[in-house]
Amino acid sequence: MLRARGLGKRYRQRWALSDCTLEIPAGRVVGLVGPNGAGKSTLLNLAAGMSAPTAGEVEVCGGRPGSGPAQLAKVGFVAQDAPTYASLTVAEHLRLGARLNPGWDADLARDRVERLGLDPAQRAGRLSGGQRAQLALTLGIAKRPEVLLLDEPVAALDPLARRGFLQDLMETVAEHGVGVVLSSHLITDVERVCDHLVTLVGSRVVLAGEIDDLLATHRRLTGPRRDPATLPADQHVVTASHTDRQSTLLVRTGSPILDPAWAVSEVGLEDLVIAYLEPPAPATSRPTLEVLR
């Protein structure tokens, strides 16, 4: 679905994305997470063909983003503020979509608008935030793309509208088999709908893979105070905290934890993501990124 090799984007002297190497299989629903300024929107803009790389290369659905009408037809993109034209009605948005997209599915668009209860005669500027987000999603889906890129589509929605949006998105994924890359600050939303995770920190990818695999290979260890450097070589320390007598470590490993001194517990997705957003543990290095397929 998406492949990047050494991908980077620089604005003047600042790298918004740096040395990004990823390979995401087709048909995944990907959660793209990270703090503000980490490069999430930049990656999505590059994947959509809205901007060109400064370094490296990116491939989406087998082609170079923005390379021509056939490639553009493969990608649906809903930008961060779910843009719509305030002076156009819902019906006019659908007619515009039909004019701009050769693969436009008019029946799909019309059925979604009816099911969502959107008034075709209503101007977009008079819709609620949730309704505008659903209209933008309808435009993205009705072009019948192979992959749908969503940049913080639910950030401004209330919890009820957000839940409805995500439920509708998953029904679309199940019905039409479209792949999704969903940028979000809300880990609970990512956990609800995504099966793949990409975490960006400081314009770089620090964690990527299938969510089930990532959770299965991370463990929290609690036990007598210990220098993390003394752990076995296959236990890569992500974070470490210490009291006078106790150490708590989050480690990444593919092997069982056999040391009886440790109390071993599983880690949830939110704790896992937050751990990778924190500075690396002292006297240790963060585990080398491995893209899990």
From TrEMBL:
Pfam families: ABC_tran. Keywords: ATP-binding, Nucleotide-binding, Transport. Gene3D superfamilies: P-loop containing nucleotide triphosphate hydrolases. CDD domains: ABC_DR_subfamily_A. It comes from the Bacteria. SMART domains: AAA. GO terms for molecular function: ATP binding. Residues 2-227 form the ABC transporter domain. This is ABC transporter ATP-binding protein. It comes from Saccharothrix lopnurensis. The lineage of its organism: Bacteria, Bacillati, Actinomycetota, Actinomycetes, Pseudonocardiales.
